[in-house]
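Reopening this ticket.

The earlier resolution said the output was attached, but the attachment link was broken on my side. Pasting everything inline this time so it's all in one place.
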Amino acid sequence: MINSITQIGKFQWETLNYRDCEEDLLKVFAEDPSDKGRYQQAIIIQMENIGEIHYIGVRVREYDSRDIYRYMYKPGSPNGCDLSPTAKLTNPEKTIPNKIIKRVGEVAQSNLGKSFDEQTALVNSMLIVLEGNQELIIKDIEQIHKNKDKDVNFFVTISLIDDGEELFPGDIPIFQYIFIQDSLRGLYYRTTGNMDTRVESGACSVCQQTGIETYGFASPFSFYTIDKPGYISGGFYKDMVSYNYPVCKSCSIWLLMGKKYLEENLTFNAFGKSLYIIPKTFNNKLLSRALGYLSRLNDTETFTQFREHYLEKEDRLFKYTGDMEEGCTFNFVFFREKNSSFRILLDLNDVLPSRLNTVFRALDDINIADFFSKFPISSQSELSIKINFSWLNGILENVGSDRYFLELFGSIISDKKIDYHFLMKFVSQELINTFNGNGKISFKLYTIISYGFLTFLHNLDLLNYNRKGEGSMNQPSRNVYDILEYKSRKDAFEAFFNDHKGFFDKPEKKAMFMIGYLTQKLLNIQMGKYDGNTPFQSRLKGLKLSKRDISRLYHEITSKLDEYGNNIYKQERGICAEYFVQTAEKWDILNEDISFFIALGMNMTHCFNFKEIENGENIEKDKEKV
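Inline output:
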């Protein structure tokens, strides 16, 4: 990851024709004071030079990104002042003396030699004015702060009107010089513990050059903290911090530029988490094309061109990236930043565009299949079921940790096996929640989406079942199996199981499906007879079923159906009994599978068009919930 970010930074440095001079280094180190739009207005403390400097007042100025280098903002330590007299405004009584005036005082006290004598005198005069008018300045700012809208945030800076021109900190040479020197110093020095991590003849961890000066605090990512001895190379000796992550000056600057480019162009929100998409190429020509291609990810029109409307924004990010030409790989870095610490949640290295294409072609195949795109929800209506990665994120977010989702997502993208039984524990738990009315979507919808995503994983050969005989592809193409096309109902069910043989490869699974099918048929009858009530549903134990419940359930279903008519679903009952006989004692199905395959049977009844008619009347009430 670090090398790829440095490569991007170096490419930007060369493309912009930057040199190791104050003007260009200012552009490298200066940060956006608006903080991505959170601080959209600047409060300017104005002074004027008319032979002597005096305080004019404060004014509010709309933020303009073209003035980033004039404001010259860069945060310092939390309890100290920033690297220029520009700071985010919190409490005027604290920000003005501790951030603005204190920084001007530090610059005034700097001993830079005769070449800066005139500038030092100027800053000393500004300091006297600021200190002499401190109470008035705070009062003026508080008046503005008090009357602001709730959603408005300010940053504050100073300006000096000299000969009709308004100068900001970045326009004044002494402020600019000290800003750059302190920024460079921050790459190797910490006031806490008075630690200087420069090594005159070291080895750079990035470019691998030896015999050059390296810095120990150059990484813009806070991977470790030096206040805990266990994080220091060499054990408990703080003088060994220099060797934690030594970086030369050039790589330090390129790394900083690369990170800034990532934050401005290649940072996204995916599945509720922050994501870097980092290209890695063999040369600058390919890198230029990759960066240009990826820059369109921030253009909303890019995604409106997608035909695959079933994809969520996150899915489209990865699918679009997969269309990049070969010769480029990607790092997908999910991360979290909190209190200045940078924590990598998942780092997918060297992902090929062809792998992303393989994944999303498999997802396309599922979504365009009639079985999902025209799923029958009643005898007369269909619904397009959307299968995407939000399902996986949804069933795992209740666990309270990002870990499981990211691990499974990483396995899919990296072509690593996923333990089927591990995944089914979460699928089953949410299945039970939806069955009992505690899910975010309906029981039927959740069941079909779950089946679609599992089919997607199965067809990519990602599910590790830890059992033999589950290697056939799942090809759910047809959405309705009409009795007119088959000699018998058993033939229709067998045709369905054959199309879905990747999952229905064992008689016990088929038996569970038939139990679910008959259960839903019984519930439908009860809805019609008892004004929408389904008393038999209580016999399903909230769908928390085990092997010992199945025999009981089959006999209870059979008995209830007999109460409503001797020949109701006689063929289906016989088919179910046949599958039970075929299983004999070789029962190879877990409790999670029992609940899931019964749920499939319950929610796929409309995939079979048998037109049940008893005595000229429809015996079911066709009002299953979607």
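Reporter confirms the inline version is readable. The first helix runs from residue 2 to 15. The chain is about 45% helix and 15% strand.
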